[in-house]
Amino acid sequence: MAFDPLAYLTTRRADYAYLLGLYLGDGAIVSKTNRLEIALDSRYPAVVRSCQLAMQRLHPRSRVAIRRKGEGCQVVSSYAREWMQLFPQHGAGPKHLRAIRLTDWQIQIATEHPFALLRGFIESDGSRFDRKVGGRIYPAYEFANESADIRDIFCWVARAVGLVFTVPKPNVISIARRQHVATLDLHVPLKARRSESLG
Fold first, then answer.
1. What SS3 class is residue 178?
2. Superfamily for 118-198?
């Protein structure tokens, strides 16, 4: 019987959208072992924990492990045959050197849970910055990725939920309008944000 991702995910589609954002940002699949790996910044344990829980909910029969990898990095991983089918963007080499396209069923899930996908993007390759300009604080979100295709997916989802963005420099998407930052704040947990201050 053919594997049906939508039937498999059923009530776990928001978790999948979130994990998809993390995977496209900093994930990979080791095809020889069917191991999904997502590399995350050790400074944000809440993000590591959220990733672990989402991965566990998507495949509850498999153990989810967390290991250190070098300085400041933790890798969340799980073995399951289903990962190869749930993340068909896997392939040899860096993502920015190959085409990355969402399947029709992934587009359906992204449309159903756009903020979960945006949260995954931001928690993997994004930041929330507080910029000080003229003595005042102006918060903004940024998403940075070397893959033009992945940036296009981020922009498509942001546009779909009415978020206005700019491209201040190559490979970087910025969301800085006050009401749109406030909208993202509702969907990206405070303890999970990558917050930094820029003078």
1. helix
2. Homing endonucleases (3.10.28.10)
